[in-house]
Specification:
67% of the residues lie in helices and 6% in strands. The chain has 14 helices and six strands. The strands form three sheets. The chain has a two-stranded antiparallel sheet with strand order 1-2. A two-stranded antiparallel sheet has the order 3-4. A two-stranded antiparallel ribbon has the order 5-6.
């Protein structure tokens, strides 16, 4: 059934599917790990049981999300050897060490302290347990650091040379490879996005339970903390996204042209196209609703600044405009919706109605998944905008794939889709079930009950001095 399909297209679809699933979980666990550290710090400082209850509630959810993130990441990485073996061979001397650093630092740090964080509060003491929680939170950030460094190098390669075998190798200093031109901007934008994603999930949870009982003290605290985070972080994220866009314009102008829908150059100032239908065949934007010269103002801070269009880029080096145009608008639109939710919560807080405005709570519930949609839309914008390259202007996607037949790739794609929706669907259902249950007063520690071997039921206790028959 796949004989007539391009195997590279199937390989790209498989990687896009698995990375989209995977990216959901780290974008949640990065922010949730830091939130857990804050909750435990507040509990240690105030001694209030409220914070401990909320901590233990979210710890259960973190454990499930973290496990699904690890599993989905392992499966995703295998594709570098199966579907993208040429890419692995050519970029391995650069990408390989960066991925190894991620394992040696972040993964070992998380693995070393995760067990203490999940099960050790009654065993190691409060302060050591808090240190373990902080180490897990730090580990999630370090993991993002190395993964984004590797991916950013593919976007803006630096500090490399090409050897006689056609492989990319480090030249000069690893610092140039790690801190490539787009890395700081993409790291800030991604990590802030993870914090914002977590705040929306946490806020939706608090809002859901406030709709059922506005006097619930746990729901009140959860919703209040989440709305503070959304109100403070959303405008910072907008600024971070703007700086990344300016950096992208400097290093990957074709990506920005496609994001903006600029098929043609604008020598006297480019319009900001809010909506329209990209017409790839005619190389124009149909039914465009635009603000004159606003794109030049945003990107160049000058209404009359010239902006080049895709007519200056060879046809075989242009990214797919329709996907980029709409994924970018989904990301930006949701970003401003988050900003609006944060402002709304500030107004409610100022009027003393944060826990009473039902429409605010309904909006909080509706915005719960918005962070996940936004980060995936942003990831699509970043990765599709790099096409037709895997390493920007140095290695094409068509030159990176393994020599596989389409039926082989298609069969594995179908298997991935089935297994992922079954396994991760059940995991997501369980997380939603935990969220719907809510925080219980005196929330027990994770794994507090005795662990028994499957199939073995403890017998009745023997009386003192009793004989066995």
């Amino acid at each position: 059934m796949f004989d007539a399909v391009d195997p590279i297209l199937l390989a790209r679809a498989q990687f896009a599917f698995t990375v989209s699933f995977h990216f959901i979980f780290p974008s949640f666990s990065i922010g949730l790990a830091s939130y857990l550290a804050v909750l435990e710090a507040l509990w240690l400082r105030t001694g209030k049981q409220l914070y401990l209850d909320i901590f233990r509630f979210w710890l259960k959810i973190f454990a499930v999300a973290f496990a699904m993130g690890v599993v989905s990441g392992i499966v995703m990485s295998y594709q570098f050897g199966t579907n993208w073996a040429v890419f692995s061979d050519k970029t391995g001397p650069v990408i390989g060490p960066l991925m190894a650093y991620e394992v040696l630092t972040a993964f070992f740090l998380e693995a070393g302290f995760l067990g203490v964080m999940l099960f050790g509060m009654e065993k190691v003491g409060r302060r050591l347990h808090f240190a373990a929680t902080c180490m897990v939170a730090l580990g999630t950030f370090i993991s993002a650091f190395w993964i984004l460094s590797a991916n950013s190098w593919m976007q803006t390669p630096a500090g490399y040379a090409i050897n006689a075998q056609g492989q990319f190798v480090m030249a000069g200093s690893w610092l140039k490879v790690i801190f490539n031109p787009s890395f700081p901007y993409r790291l800030a934008h991604t990590v802030i996005g993870a914090y914002l994603t977590t705040s929306l999930v946490v806020g939706a949870t608090g809002a859901w339970h406030l709709l059922k009982d506005r006097t619930d003290p746990h729901a009140r605290k959860i919703f209040s903390m989440a709305m503070w985070m959304a109100a403070l972080v959303a405008p910072i994220q907008i600024l971070a996204g703007d700086t990344q866009g300016l950096n992208t314009l400097d290093h990957q102008p074709a990506k920005v042209m496609a994001m903006e829908g600029h098929y043609s150059s604008h020598p006297d100032g480019a319009p900001l196209i809010l909506f329209g239908i990209p017409n790839g065949r005619e190389k124009r934007m149909d039914y465009a609703f635009e603000i004159p010269k606003a794109s030049s103002l945003i990107l160049k801070h000058d209404l009359s600044a010239p902006l080049a269009g895709l007519d200056t880029v060879p046809a075989d080096e242009q990214p797919p405009v329709a996907i980029l145009f709409w994924s970018f608008r989904v990301m930006v639109g949701l970003g401003f919706a988050m900003f609006g939710l944060g402002l709304w919560s500030l107004v409610a807080r100022a009027r003393g109605r944060l826990y009473d405005w039902r429409w605010l709570h309904r909006a909080g519930v509706a915005m719960g998944p918005a962070g996940f949609v936004a980060v995936i839309a942003g990831w699509v914008t970043t990765e599709v905008g790099r096409q037709p390259w895997t390493v920007w202007h140095l290695l094409r996607t068509t030159e990176s794939a393994s020599p596989l037949a389409a039926p082989a790739v298609g069969a594995s794609l179908i298997a991935f889709v089935g297994v992922y929706f079954a396994v991760f669907g059940i995991g997501t259902w369980y997380i939603l079930k935990l969220i719907a249950k809510g925080v219980e007063p005196g929330e027990p520690e994770l794994g507090h009950a005795p662990i028994r071997t499957a199939g073995i039921t403890p017998g009745p206790a023997q009386p003192s001095g009793g004989q066995m028959s």
